[in-house]
Predict the structure.
Amino acid sequence: MVVGPVNQLRSLLLPILIGLVVGGFNPWVLGATGAGIVALLVNGFVTWRTTRYEVGEDRLEIRRGLVRRSRRTIPLERVRGVDVTSTLLHRILGVAVVRIEAAAGSAGATEDGKLDAVDIAEAERLRRVLLHRREVLTGRASADTPDDASAPSGEGGGTDEGIVHFAVPRSWYLYGALSLGYLLTPFAVLATLFGAVQQTAGEWATDAFIDWVRDSDRSGLVMFAVAGVVIIVLLMPVFAVVSYAITHWGFTLRERDGSLVAERGLFTRRSVTLEKRRIRGYELADNPLERLRGAVRLRAIVTGLGDAAGRSVLLPIGPRSEVEAVVDRALGRYTGTLRRHPRAALVRRLLRSVGPPALAVAAAVAFGPAWTVVLTLALTVAGVPLGVDRYRSLGHGYDGERVSVRSGSISRSQSTVERSAVIGWTWSQTLFQRRSGLADLQVTVGAGAGGYTAQDASLGASVAFAADVTPDMVRPFLVDPRP
């Protein structure tokens, strides 16, 4: 009765405040505001009274609604994951949100279910019961195995904490200053505030801002703008560290009941459960700033995972050595080396990074002012190390158990998948690649992004590589198959 109205009131808070400021203590404004709050409270009461759920032997049923009733049935054998999330409001009230992710039905519609504001102990009980019964229905567990349905549990844990693979130390929060996404947090906040004001106040806010700029002293306005930009730039690392800490506060990765459970968050506490049997590999990602400090991020490559960007995180940004140690303990690490790609791939990388700005230099010399020539020339020179770094990042390898592919520079990723997860290979060539004897080799897997590409690899060497990984799949199609 509290969570729903408060969440809806949050989205209406800014319009209500602006209405009160603009309209003053107008009786109509106050009456409309009061009527809206009463309507939210009534809606919360009706939602609480009409929402019911039942866990049967083979299905979960959720019923809600008074005027417009809905009944959602989720077969338990289709359940892929059960996540428990608690915002700050939920944690104050001692409740949580249970999200049930299920495979899509025959019509392609999702069967996901959501139970908001469930008691924390009940949320943990539901997760254990649903996952256990799913295992029983799919034949991976015995019906006689207890599911601890009545066992008490606390927030984010339960009585059985399982094996704790890693708990992020506070010193890791400083790595937030290396992430481009976290560094841009101040600009994202300003854009959000500007958009909210623009949508709420409309032309009135725009006209007021224009009038303020027109009436202000030009020199003072420039100094104010420059000072604001400098302050924001100086505060970018601080905002980045704070954003990182809020998102990944108390990050813990543990293994429990055949699943990896990742818990994180300061204000919003989120617990994501990933079955190990559905994890087919992992991905290490970094950017140039992170590479300078030897830091990477870790994500899981999982079959049938919705919201992969948020739910597949196994570790936030941290030292590569410690991240790889966690991979070794929890999943099994790729132990081979990566094969270098031909020199022709370096030429292609340099042409892509230097070619466009070089054309811009020629255009600037012919038609542009002097400052455009300097700018485009600087971009051309900067393209050389970028192209070299993109080439040095290319690589692919096989260690007898796992296939690994790496590419990228500004955003570099190394994806590693189990050999058993490989379901196909795709070679593609452009006209220029054919002339250079190169090809893009995509490792097709039924998980994650669906495929991972070794860019600009040697065509002949990539065919031999694929035949070495999956000989039964590739060698029947070779003109001269070798044992």
